[in-house]
TrEMBL record:
Gene3D superfamilies: Anthranilate synthase. SUPFAM superfamilies: ADC synthase (SSF56322). This is Anthranilate synthase component I N-terminal domain-containing protein. Residues 125-275 form the Anthranilate synthase component I N-terminal domain. It comes from the Eukaryota.
Amino acid sequence: MSHSASLASGISSLQTRVASASSRTQRCVEPSPRCRPVAAAMGLHTEGRSSAVGVRGSAMGPRAFQKVTKSASRIGRKTAQVTCAIADQAPAVEMSELPDEGFEAFKAKAATSNLIPLFERIFSDQLTPVVAYGCLVKEDDREAPSFLLESVVNGDQSGRYTYLGARPSVEMVAQGNKVTVLDHVKGDRQVTTEEDPMIKLEDMSKAWKPYKCPELPETFCGGWVGYAGYDTVRYVYSSKLPNEKAAEDDRGLADIHFGLYKDVVVFDNVTKIAYVVHWVELDDDATLESTYVAGCKHLRTLSKRMQDTVVVPPLPAGKVNLDLSKRPALGKSNTTKEKFMEMLAQAKEYILAG
């Protein structure tokens, strides 16, 4: 096949993928109801009935790929930039020449919102979530807060989206009623006593007015990610299950630990597009223009870190020395059936007694 025929075939395939993604219905969210300790991740995402403030939209807008031919001509690269956009802004943004219309669009959104997403779309055919995570989190920094979340449908099918993030701007850690808030941007640390630390998360999010972006995927795109432990039920039923009567904590684990991730990468496993998202929070002490320029530079650095590191170092081969077609052998119980039934009956009595 000639070079021109191969390129034409690649462009046709790309346009088919873009057309499919562009046909999705664009939707937006409303502020969400109060969350409870059962929440594990919440933030700038898609469904209005989910557990925190949210932003969503279709995966691609109708003008998202105005330069399809130009992008397709770089098909031989490990990753190809599709676009750098703010909301409905499609053309690529170079840091050396920020387009006036880009800032004007940002300024229009700032009139009604104080949290605005800047994002790039990149092809993820050869950029896996594991490789991207390795690019964002250095080997000597693996204990720092970060996450990689896969989605599964019906327990045995890979879901459409994969999410990853690192370097939260804020962390909230609760042990009992002691709450510690670490602001990594301001270098600030606050320790307070809260009756229900989960309400603290809500209070910290109340001032947000996120822009409802129609071009981001209809899924989680940034916000609070973390865990709420089993004992957080004590915050809800403090009269019946006070912290003072809890078993001694011999491991020093936090009851709640959430990080606010304003830098998130969302992999769409259907369209093979990765969304690199950076949320810009407006600051009264900075001008809109300087905030926009700083946000674009931050986004470009974040995206470049993944694309420049994608080929080095290569991942070592992993081996699985297990027969995955067979169920694992049943373990030996450490109690008898009679003792187990007795424990179960006692647990039911505890539940009835509150």
